Amino acid sequence: MIDFVKIKFDNSNLDLLRNRLNFESVIKSKTGEVRMEKARLHMMDILIFHPSHIVEVKGSLHKCYNSLQKKKGRNQETKSQLDKGYNGNEFNYTQLCYTINYLCNYFDTSSNLLILKNIEFGLNIEHTFYNKLILNNLIRHIGKPFIEPQKDFFQVEHKDYFIKCYDKGKQYGLIAETLRIELKYIKMKSLNSIGLWTLENLKDKSILIHLNKILLKRWDEILLFDYTIRESELNDFEKSKIDLFRNKNFWNIYEKANKLDRSKKRLNQITNLHSDNIQDYLTEKLNRNWINLQKNCPTYYELKNQ
Q1: Which of 58, 155, 194, 273 has its CA 20 to 30 A from that of 30?
Q2: Does the reported pTM lie above 0.85?
Q3: How far apart are CA 180 and CA 168, in angstroms?
Q4: Tell me: the pLDDT tens digits for 98-115?
């Protein structure tokens, strides 16, 4: 569910942090002044900015939990690989609350004071298709084409958020084909409107339900060419259209044209009738897996009373 976060808070107890963590000073090259102090705690970076002494913590809550539990990927053996952390498994509600409580206890602060500035949330989905073919056939999301900024990783950048899809199985040497679908919010205004402001809010299951709905909506908005379309079932006209639809340049030419709507409808019709419908399959798995990661998990208040 929840992965990377950037959180910010004013911490008056800096001596406690400096006593518990090994900070290194980051120096301004021109003036020699200290720009910040930096330390690391279970895959989380802790930064103390100068001269404000505002504390910022950023990193993956999922990786933090796995570090606390000493879990790693199948292909992680060297120090450099281990230093990148591991988030290729599931991360449920109870584990999320455990991680938040651990950080709050370590920093001697309340989760209400840990203000979210950025957040990433999504799921790792095991499936029986081929990640490479799914990723290579991602076309557009709300008028913008998918780009591949690095190997096995595709994204679309919007003003407030990115939508990201990548091969989690290949990243960690997993046995099963595992696709990660994720949203990265760089501006929090729209998430603030559903009540998401602090780490404390992530313990609220109703907030997590809202995040699931947002993830499903964004995934369903993607234009994906389904590589499982059975062309042997198509007539000559449909085959000619499919040749166009699998070409990403076709969609980019008509980026701002209404002609896209007719083409999208025709592609959806062919996909629904003549393919395994990967997108709908993954939609159903996203929803079911998210629900399962909250189902039968103790609530925050139950955890406190244990």
Answers
A1: 58
A2: yes
A3: 6
A4: 999 999 999 988 899 999
